[in-house]
């Protein structure tokens, strides 16, 4: 289970294979959202709650996780799942709704070092969301819009509050929406890449988290880092998958 | 939210003032400083290096226009025209966009000089809390900058951040500081000061039954801790003063005093004829303008 600030993801592993997964909005009651997602994932897998040997929880709201037998750090979960999906992964960039982090790991998927962009909306999905609102564009349209831009106008990368007024003044200057959208992603990529550089870049670099699905961000980040990051399928499930993989090792250590 | 109630809680007072005890004539050296900040534009006029008048207005989307508006405001009812000004210094975040300025000087130098002018030569540490950044400046007895530190651009604790808060909690911005002190016991500071997240987190605290006072106290405390850390990093040396718009936030200032264990020099009574620390940058700029004018005149004579 990965209990994030916006979404809850659940992955069910059976003998090391993914047999079920589900997603729910955290809302006001993350515990309830997690229960719902667990039921859905188990249904998919044709399993019952009692069949589960070990539940591991991760994410910023992990203290509210139901059924949890143990906890897994978000960095540990990222590392484990990334190497499972991309064996050569050594640097993992995880950009979620409210947090971003970069994790360095070894070939076994064990975390070696990490850096965080802790609870600052700049450099996380919340930045795109706020800027989309200022631009009066749907969040899912931001990425495709940015890809149409021919150039970018610089905006304030370091704070959502100031970024909002920058976007408004760009609108007043009659900059086109694609160019402003690209500026938003470039600003965010600047911030994330500065964070990754503090850690050091070891290939392969894997991008995970909900924002990894946003093509606007991916293009800006690749341009900024000068490499092509690898994006696994369903990057938003990586935290839950990592927790499930670690849960499996804990079953082996401590069989029920 | 402000649209629903029709009240603009973030709006602070725009005003201009002429100090009554000073007269000017053509023989005087009349200078001005124009400080175009990200949130407020301030202009001050000095006669022979003494504060004469000032104006404070909100910065619009066009910096040159805001600069002109602030200067016109400072000159209003004085009988002075822009052409009477011997030298004008532009400063602040929009200083390159002050069209009438003879020279642009950084706001750090101007706030240092302005603090020295307002409080005198004993000031050694200036905390300037502006619309979008926070600076801790060490100065010498003449008001010259010795060293300074600045926060990353982050709205927490800045004027802009407070405006967002005022709107969020629906409390007029000029009352925020006083209200934040109306708690029986100071709550723990919030762990996340990000203003963008405050929109949801402060609401969550209110839903949990926290009073507005308690929410404000927890946030104000956290912001004061950040500012106190900045002062400690630059090295606290007495006397300490606060300039910029947030100098008027008693909740911030008194908490900084508690955390650092020192008293700031008293805030001038700006509502009743005293100098306004929000104009410190513009006053410093006008003061530096006089020095620059005299230097230029000397050069011409020689």
What do these coordinates show?
The complex is a heterodimer of chains A (256) and B (302). Chain A is of the alpha/beta class. Chain A has two domains: 1-86 and 236-256, ATPase, nucleotide binding domain (Nucleotidyltransferase, domain 5, 2-Layer Sandwich), CATH 3.30.420.40; 87-231, ATPase, nucleotide binding domain (Nucleotidyltransferase, domain 5, 2-Layer Sandwich), CATH 3.30.420.40. Chain A is built from eight helices and nine strands. Chain A has a four-stranded mixed beta sheet with strand order 8-7-6-9. In chain A, a hairpin with a 2-residue loop joins β2 and β3 (17-25). In chain A, α4 (139-147) crosses α7 (215-225). Chain A starts with a strand and ends with a helix. Chain B is globular. The longest helix of chain B has 23 residues, at 212-234. In chain B, 38% of the residues lie in helices and 19% in strands. Chain B has a six-stranded mixed beta sheet with strand order 1-4-3-2-5-6. Chain B has a four-stranded mixed beta sheet with strand order 9-8-7-10, with helices on both faces. In chain B, β2 and β3 (40-47) form a beta hairpin. In chain B, α3 crosses α9, α4 (159-169) runs parallel beside α6 (195-207) and α7 (212-234) crosses α8 (250-260). Chain B has two domains: 2-105 and 279-301, ATPase, nucleotide binding domain (Nucleotidyltransferase, domain 5); 128-264, ATPase, nucleotide binding domain (Nucleotidyltransferase, domain 5), CATH 3.30.420. By secondary structure, chain B is of the alpha/beta class. The A-B interface holds A 98, 118-122, 126-127, 130, 156, 158-162, 165, 168-169, 172 and B 38, 61, 132, 152-155, 160-161, 164, 191-192, 194-197.
